[in-house]
Write a structure and sequence with these properties.
Blueprint lengths: L5 E4 L9 H16 L3 E4 L13 H11 L23 H14 L2 E4 L3 H13 L22 H9 L5 E4 L6 E6 L3 E6 L7 E3 L7 H11 L4 E5 L6 H11 L5 E5 L2 E2 L9 H7 L8 E2 L6 E2 L9 H9 L14 H7 L10 E2 L2 H14 L2 H14 L6 H11 L9 H5 L11 H7 L4 H13 L6 H15 L3 H13 L7 H23 L1
Parallel strand pairs: 1-2, 8-9, 10-13
Antiparallel strand pairs: 3-4, 4-7, 5-6, 11-12
Helix pairs in contact: 1-10, 9-11, 12-13, 16-18, 16-19, 17-19, 18-19
This protein binds glutamic acid.
Glutamic acid binds next to helix 6.
Length: 504
């Protein structure tokens, strides 16, 4: 096992964390825990134009809800801090300067308008403008201008950026822990900006410098960063630093059709793409979250773990601890993983069955309170034990078992038509008397005595049981009928039968 594994989750606080981001965080977390390593959170907020104030807290809250907290990060074990790139601002310039001195970077003075003009000009000729080896000597930069011209421009306060000088005619051979060997010809790369005219580093420079300074050993991130790998590899080479190992996770795909799962898919098909509800402070728009939609964090995490990773067996249910043991990059797939909202529900239903009745009852209490219902917790626990089998969410409990708390006021019309016959009221009245006289009011005993009476009367079981269920529940649904009778008690049972007789 590798010693001292240090991984990082490095989101940009530009909005709520997409579930793909949570999956990246999760895989980093699992990898760290598996190797007794450290899981670092770094906030990559160098792009001031896309900064969103409440996003960082949202990210931290999301990791917490998912139960995958970071070991090191903003406000926590700040050994390698600060962990917000905006607070490390002063530190990056010296690295840009180092690359300039070493000849791995150059000043570029081209204005946005000039670059735009080049782009348009290329487009008209059916070409794409790439700022790199084949035209950089003709543009406004320190490779094309004389030393004096460059110094004069800088002295005059002209705006400049620092660009990476990509080497020409080289084949880069890189290793990805998931994808294996990847080769790229450097002539296809553009000379990316490393340092911006506003004095801030770009993502590329800050990311590499920080991964180095924070002693990151493994970079585990989304596939969308794979195109940056050649530049990052070259940057490590330019700095003469040991590069971490890289692993690029497959995309999470739409449930139907092609492409990356987006918020729009969620809106269209009715599922959240964010872990927690998110309010856009600017537009006021509120996006749904898994938490608020009633998902258990462990179910959500279990589902996410299997998006792009498999244990090598058919097994699907994994606690976080079990995931930590089973996880490895070897079983992360190269191809995209289709997200399934149905499977996510299935996981929640499975996890709900594993929760204790006490916990579930306590989650049900506020929903009951909203309806003005207050019962002792022992009763609610019993109700939960009888209905949870059919529930996917705690929110289903009322639909599945509201009749344990309230007499039915409405009756399923179709069922009434089919089951409530002319002779039913008489049978029900007699049954009410039978029930009235039962002393030991346990489900088993009630069942035995009622069935005895049915047998003695020589009528069909259905002729009694179905109307009885209708009277007690209002529909032909619910758990074992005699359990219901025991639970609601003699008085309510008889009341309900009488109500049905006089109303149906
Ligand atoms: N800041 C990048 C992001 O938003 C980090 C990419 C990386 O992990 O290198 O995802």
């Amino acid at each position: 096992m590798t010693d001292n594994v240090r991984v990082r989750f490095a989101p940009s606080p530009t909005g709520p964390l997409h579930m793909g981001g949570v999956r990246t965080a999760l895989f980093n977390y699992l990898y760290a825990k598996k190797h007794n390593g450290t899981f670092v959170l770094r906030i990559e907020d160098t792009d001031q134009t896309r900064y969103v104030a409440n996003a960082e807290q949202y990210i931290i809250d999301s990791l917490e809800w998912c139960n995958i907290p970071f070991d090191e990060g903003p406000g926590k074990n700040e050994k390698f801090g600060p962990y917000r790139q905006s607070e490390r601002k002063e530190l990056y310039k010296q690295y840009a300067d180092e690359l300039l001195t070493k000849g791995w970077a150059y000043y570029a003075f081209d204005t946005a308008e000039e670059l735009d003009a080049h782009r348009k000009d290329h487009e008209e000729k059916g070409k794409t403008f790439i700022y790199n080896w084949h035209n950089r000597e003709k543009l406004q930069n320190s490779l094309a201008l004389s030393e004096e011209e460059v110094q004069a421009k800088i002295a005059a306060g002209e705006k400049y950026v620092v660009r990476f000088k990509t080497p020409q005619d080289e084949t880069l051979v890189m290793q990805d822990e998931i994808r294996g060997t990847i080769s790229v010809n450097t002539n296809t790369l553009d000379d990316k900006v490393l340092f911006k005219s506003d004095g801030m580093p770009t993502y590329h420079l800050a990311n590499i410098v920080d991964d180095h300074l924070m002693e990151i050993t493994h970079v585990i991130r989304g596939e969308e960063w794979l195109p940056s790998l050649p530049l990052h590899t070259l940057l490590y080479k330019a700095f003469e630093w040991k590069a971490p190992k890289f692993a690029h996770l497959p995309l999470i795909l739409k449930p139907v059709g092609k492409g990356k799962l987006s918020k729009r898919d969620g809106d269209k098909l009715g599922f959240p793409v964010f872990p927690l509800e998110y309010k856009n402070e600017e537009t006021g728009e509120v996006s749904r979250g898994y938490k608020e939609d009633g998902y258990f964090a462990d179910a959500f995490i279990n589902m996410l773990a299997l998006l792009g990773w498999n244990p090598g067996t058919e097994r699907e249910m994994f606690s976080l601890n079990e995931l930590t043991k089973a996880f490895g990059l070897k079983r992360v797939s190269k191809s995209g993983a289709k997200f399934s909202p149905e499977k996510t529900k299935w996981f929640n239903q499975q996890y709900l069955q594993l929760k204790s009745n006490t916990l579930l009852a306590n989650l049900f209490v506020p929903m009951l309170a909203e309806k003005g219902i207050e019962r002792e917790i022992g009763y609610i626990e019993k109700v939960v034990s009888l209905i949870k089998e059919r529930a996917t969410f705690v929110a289903d409990f009322w639909e599945l078992g509201g009749f344990f708390f309230e007499n039915p006021t409405e009756f399923d019309e179709k069922a009434v038509k089919k089951q409530w016959k002319e002779d039913t009221p008489a049978i029900m009245e007699e049954l009410a008397t039978v029930i009235e006289n039962i002393e030991d009011f346990s489900s088993k005993n009630i069942e035995a005595l009622v069935k005895e009476w049915i047998a003695a009367k020589e009528i069909g079981m259905g002729k009694v049981m179905q109307p009885l269920r209708l009277s007690l529940v209002g529909a032909l649904k619910g758990p074992h009928l005699f359990d219901i009778i025991e639970m609601i008690g003699k008085e309510a049972t008889i009341q309900r039968i009488q109500h049905a007789v006089s109303n149906l």
